[in-house]
Structures are given as structure tokens and as C-alpha cells.
Design a protein that fits this description.
Blueprint: E1 2-7, H1 11-20, E2 26-32, H2 36-46, E3 49-51, H3 54-58, E4 65-68, H4 75-84, E5 88-92, H5 99-112, E6 116-119, H6 126-137, E7 143-153, H7 172-188, E8 192-200, E9 211-218, E10 223-231, E11 237-244, E12 247-252, E13 256-261, E14 264-267, H8 276-294, H9 302-321, E15 325-326
Parallel strand pairs: 1-2, 1-4, 2-3, 4-5, 5-6, 7-10
Antiparallel strand pairs: 7-11, 8-9, 8-15, 9-10, 11-12, 12-13, 13-14
Helix pairs in contact: 1-8, 4-5, 5-9
Length: 333
Amino acid sequence: MIGVGIIGAGHFGAVHARAMAEVEEVRLVASCREDADAAAAFAAEHGGKGYSDWPALLEDPKVDAVLIATPHHLHEAITIGAAQAGKHILLEKPMAPCVAACDTMLAAADAYGVKLMIGHVMHFALPCLKAKEIIDSGVFGAPVLGSSWMIKLWMESNRRPWHINHASGGGMLMTAGIHALDRLIWLMGQPVVGVTAMTGTYFHEQEADDAALISLRFANGRVGQVASVGYRDGAVTFAMDLVCENGTIRIDFDHGVSTGQDGVWTPVPGSIEPNWMGAAVAREWRALAASIMNDTPSPVTGAYGRHVVACIEAAHRASASRCEVPIPGTFLV
């Protein structure tokens, strides 16, 4: 069994702790939070030893792997420290606030021979998995155009000051809209080679963006668009359309997946589940555990996580320059 330590035992750390309880291959043995009382309360609820200092957690011999679920600007230092300590890593998205940080993190994981998996949870969400099965079957042909959106309340109860500052990796796009972007890139099955965008702050008094409209050009010439909007008031819209060569696929997190042909939408059975987020996080841990035990490549590689961050960086540059920004390099889908 793989012993796991949670660094960042807050709101989403608790989601992971509950999910890990459903996974036979892993066990929560430690957790860390700067507030000593909060760290103790988290450990009392979920098990394992509580720490208020992440370097001390990394010294715990019971810890084989770590979840890093801290503010985005802390990912780089903690990931490097975990790699140096020989701990495998599940790193919550975004990988880091900038590509340069991603590069140092990738180098550290390679140098110390640890698994580095980026927590892009869409790859394990049932509606997306069902859509991927349909795409891979070839029945509808390859995706030609994709449209993906995340439109939601921005100032939720767990919003913190670092979420609203650009320097700390904040903003709606890095924090939540990234799910819509990741999902589109993954299901289109191609690297992005060019980005145009309009980003801004339209609903709140803050430095970082709360809305973005992004257009993507893929390596095979196909195209896509992403809407990332953190509104002041409204209702959640979290869905995606893929227009393929021989049909359409709609992914809806309230109703599941539907396919379209001959002008008719047909629901896909078994494409939605209660508590889809918890189930997806449990699948993440099963996938990482299998990668560790079988010494196979990370299920969501650091190179892929870097590519998503590169697209976000390019979106902000494209918005400022009002022109398409190229994305150099490739990644493995």
C-alpha cells in the first residue's frame, strides 16, 4: 500500500482525503497545513499525522507519495522538495503559474526519478471518459471543432486573496476555466500551436482576470474555443460540444453525454454519476497508484501540464497584443 501525505490540507485536500478512503492501493498517513490547529483537526477527521511544516512531512518515512494542493505560486518549491525527498507527486492544477516554473519542476522530477502527475481531473470524470470512448471508437470520425466553457460564480466561500492576484497564479482562467481548456485540448487529441484571446476583469475589483474568451489552433489544423467566466451572480454552465467529421458529441455535467446525428440528440447511458468529482478524484489515485506500482508513465504527464500552462500564458499575451501567439513545442496527449 502506498502511504500518502497531503500538503495543503484545506478545502480540496479534504476532497482528496475522502476519495483516497475509497481506494485500496493508497492510505493517508500524513497531512500538512500552516495553521497548527487546523492541521490537527484535519488529521483527527481524516487520519494520519498532522504537520504544520511541509519539509517535516517530507521527512516522514511512511510517506511514499504526496498530494500538493497549495496556492499555485507555492507549487514549484514544494514539488522540487518532494522530488528531492524521493516522493511521487500528484500535483493539483495548474502545474505552476508560468512555464519557466514548470520547466524546473519537470527537471527535478526527472533528476530524482519520481512520478509527477498533474491533477487535471477532467481526464477521470465519467462524462469525459464516455466522450473519449466515443471518439476513440472512430464512429463519429475525428473532432473538427470544439467549444468548451466554464461559467460559474467566482467569489465562492473558499476564495482566498491569492486567487485574485496575477503574481500568485490567480485568476478565473488559472483556477477554474483551466478545466474547460484542459478538457478541450485532451479530447481534441492534438497539441495547440496558436492562441488568440480576449481576457479581462469585468465583474470584480481585482488584479487577475475573471473572464476570458480563447480561440485555439491545433497542430492538425482543427480549431476550438474556450469560455472562462467567473460571474458576480448567475448559474453554473459547465459543458462542451465537439463537432466531429460524422456527428456531434455534447458533454454536460448535469445530464451526461449525448450524441447527435441526423438532427437528433441521443443520450448516452451510464454517462453521469452522483458526486462525479469525488469519483473522478478516486480514479486519479487509482491511476497514480498503478503507475507507481507498475513503473509506467504518469497518467497525466508534467509535459502535458506544462502545455496547458503555456496556452494560458499565450492567451494573456494574445489579449495584450491583439494577435495570435504561437505555442512552441509539443506534448504527449
